[in-house]
């Protein structure tokens, strides 16, 4: 019987952690700088990706792809983690499985690819007017 209260408390503790994470995400978004202007000469896919990134990703990763309270590691630019995926296809495969963190199925493949195109432009791996085929390709990530 002594184990029963601990089991009952465990879901409450998990809920507390989840609520704390949501509060941190809300705080990170509220304190963030304004989104960067779209890259000069950006094509439709990159423009859509910029908008989708702000709607679906910035709450955890920050409007500038770094320094968010929830996930502070940069996802593009100096010190980024993108290179570990090798290319746009590797990054797409990761995003397809795990992002957005709350429900990977809520964004379709075309939207995820647009976000990846935007990220690759921000990282300097893709020209602003270029496009990435749905599902990614062999565009190298440096």
Describe this entry's structure for a reader.
The protein is built from five helices and no strands. It has 142 residues and is an all-alpha fold. The model is unreliable at 1-20 (pLDDT under 50).
In short:
The protein contains five helices and no strands. The chain is mainly α and 142 residues long. The N terminus is likely disordered.
Instruction: Based on Cα principal axes, name the global outline.
Output: globular
- Count of β-strands: 0
Termini separation comes to 57 Å
Count of separate DSSP helical elements: 5
Q: Which class do the helix and strand fractions yield?
A: mainly alpha
Question: Low-confidence spans: pLDDT under 50, at least 5 residues?
Answer: 1-20
The helix fraction, in percent, is: 40-55%
| Gyration radius, rounded | 17 Å
Strand residue content: under 5%
Major beta-sheet overview? none
Series of secondary-structure elements, N-terminal to C-terminal: HHHHH
Could you tell me the mean pLDDT? 82
Describe the protein's topology.
Layout: H1 3-30, H2 44-56, H3 58-61, H4 88-98, H5 109-123
Notable characteristics:
142 residues; mainly alpha; 5 helices; 50% helix; globular; disordered N terminus
